[in-house]
Design a protein that fits this description.
By secondary structure, the chain is of the alpha/beta class. The chain has nine helices and 15 strands.
């Protein structure tokens, strides 16, 4: 899949959709220059929103973490797959869900008024799977049971790894693949990038259109592929997963329009184009 042709340049951008892990933060620590980059971009008048595949933190927790490192983000400008999972359940009129995931997924589902069932329950409406660093065989067995009894399989994302301060760790793909293997089912939906669900929600909330939008991320297979899928500008930064400095190093459907070593370098170039 080649994707749509991009028709805008960096100087035309009014909305930046900036990934968090590997771009702004690693674990709980800010990436060097990221705080300054966010301040610089905001100073140009551009709108910033932060869609993330990471479902381990709720939007409330993430707001607090970002504030602690020096970045104030309104909760409505954070779009996490945990939040999207809870909203998906509500849209489907589900009442009861089983979760393989961490606190963020649990908190968003509880906030939405969903009942979270445990391993001893018999039935539920949906099984939602995200990154779970306390993943166990018992959790997998329970998830399989619920699917066999008619529950719907939803994945928050299928990122293979998560960048942290100590390097990459296994991502949600490991949990999703385990359930796929034993259930012989695929998720009915993967909410995170490269699915365009997060991007569409960001556009709706910002009131902006694709022709002034730029996706910024560190993963060609998720962040950049999302942009390619819809035809908006994409920037790859090399502070997370990706390391290749040449566009031609990436397959066409994951090829960024621009590559910068850091978010700060991208922000400075954007400000320069606006003569700021």
């Amino acid at each position: 899949m080649e994707g749509f042709e991009v028709t805008i340049s960096l100087g035309d951008v009014k909305l930046f959709l900036i990934d968090l892990d590997g771009v702004v933060i690693k674990g709980s620590s800010p990436i060097k220059g990221a705080v300054e980059a966010v301040k610089l971009l905001r100073g140009t008048g551009a709108r910033l929103m932060f869609p993330t595949n990471n479902s381990t933190r709720s939007r409330v927790e993430l707001t607090g973490l970002l504030k602690k490192v020096g970045i104030n983000v309104p909760i409505e400008d954070l779009i996490t797959t945990a939040y999207c999972a809870a909203q998906y359940a509500l849209d489907k009129s589900w009442k009861r869900v089983y979760l393989i995931g961490e606190r963020g997924l649990h908190e968003e589902c509880e906030t939405a008024g969903l009942t979270i069932v445990d391993e001893d329950d018999e039935v539920c409406d949906g099984v939602m799977v995200g990154l779970d660093r306390d993943f166990t065989y018992n959790k997998l067995t329970a998830a399989l049971k619920f699917l066999q009894r008619g529950a719907v399989f939803v994945a928050t994302n299928t990122d293979s790894t998560l960048p942290t301060e100590k390097g990459e760790i296994p991502g949600a793909a490991a949990m999703v693949a385990g359930l796929e293997a034993c259930s012989k089912e695929k998720p009915i939906i993967v909410l995170g990038k490269p699915n365009t669900h997060l991007l569409e929600l960001a556009l709706e909330r910002s009131g902006q259109s694709l022709d002034v939008c730029c996706v910024v991320g560190d993963r060609p297979e998720t962040d950049i592929a999302t942009a390619r899928n819809v035809g908006c500008l994409s920037i790859l930064v090399l502070t997370g997963v990706a390391t290749q400095e040449s566009r031609e190093a990436y397959p066409s459907h994951q090829r960024p329009d621009l590559i910068f070593p850091t978010l700060l370098k991208a922000a400075r170039q954007y400000a320069h184009l606006l003569n700021m």
